[in-house]
Write a structure and sequence with these properties.
Order of helices and strands: EEHHHHEEHHEEHH
Shape: globular
Number of domains: 1
Structural class: mainly alpha
Helix content: 55-70%
Strand order of the largest sheet: 1-2
Strand content: 5-15%
Number of helices: 8
Length: 284
């Protein structure tokens, strides 16, 4: 690497331990999940929750999130997997990339909500505890795209331009060598969002889902602008790339949701557990 010239892409995204492949994309996702659980568990205990409850809830949230992320990706880009010259089996090959964050968040939240219901835990304090760790997990997970040489932006001659091998460049961009490293832009933005969540919760005493709502709004804001730089072929909606359109919709909903929660919530008041669980614990 010539410092200040470009960011080189890795020569490979897969390593082998004997016959067993270790894929960078999968490792990035797994490390991100672990970070989210560890941070979430620490924050949950500070709120008054019990140790390991977040890990127990992750048993529900992680599978739901992975399924939801893949579902969103396949549904919004069906041309990649179905039709002439396509193999539908590729829709199952998650290690090749393709987890839509919107589906992962939505389905993951459903999984966590199911786990909370079964454990007698209120969902929104859990969502607040998890939010900073989730966005940091996204920051880590984006490096999987780096190793796969995917989801980069338009050509650039900036010193931090990302070098992309010829075989990964889309049609119409074969003559360009360096591109905007949108994976890095989003990763940095996610770290900024996480720091903002930590600060805002302390400064404004955000509770009962407010941290999670702020996370949704802030991430969507950055994702909208970053998405506009990307050049990978995608479907469009209302004149925007589909993910840009989704970001706008979620941004508006996040702001509305945050404001609504601010009006409804009493400062410093929240219940971590449902009354039926407290009743059972009192009886024992």
């Amino acid at each position: 690497m010539q410092l200040g010239k470009f960011i080189p892409s890795p020569e490979t995204g897969t390593w082998y331990l004997g016959p067993v492949p270790l894929r960078a994309y999968a490792l990035a996702i797994l490390i991100g999940i672990l970070v989210a659980i560890l941070i979430g568990d620490k924050r949950w205990q500070k709120l008054g929750g019990q140790p390991n409850e977040i890990a127990d809830l992750a048993i529900w949230g992680v599978p739901f999130g992975i399924i939801g992320g893949r579902f969103y990706h396949v549904v919004t880009d069906p041309q990649l997997y179905f039709g002439t010259g396509r193999d539908p089996i590729d829709a199952l090959k998650i290690w090749q990339g393709g987890l839509g964050i919107w589906g992962a968040i939505a389905f993951g939240a459903v999984g966590i909500a199911i786990g909370c219901r079964r454990a007698g835990i209120n969902f929104w304090p859990v969502a607040d505890a998890l939010a900073p760790g989730i966005v940091l997990a996204q920051a880590i997970g984006r490096f999987g795209n780096y190793f796969n040489q995917e989801l980069f932006g338009s050509p650039t001659q900036l010193p931090w331009g990302l070098e992309i091998d010829m075989k990964y460049r889309p049609d119409g961009y074969l003559e360009y060598a360096t591109f905007h490293p949108t994976f890095l832009y989003e990763s940095v933005w996610c770290v900024i969002v996480a720091a903002t969540l930590f600060w805002a919760q302390s400064r404004y005493r955000l509770i009962n889902g407010q941290v999670f709502a702020l996370y949704i709004a802030l991430y969507s804001l950055g994702r909208f602008f970053i998405e506009q730089l990307r050049i990978d072929p995608v479907n469009a909606a209302a004149g925007f790339r589909l993910n840009s359109f989704t970001s706008l919709v979620v941004l508006v909903l996040g702001i509305f949701w945050l404001q609504r929660l601010r009006v409804k919530s009493l400062p410093g008041v929240q219940s971590l557990y449902r009354s039926d669980k407290l009743k059972v614990e009192d009886e024992t």
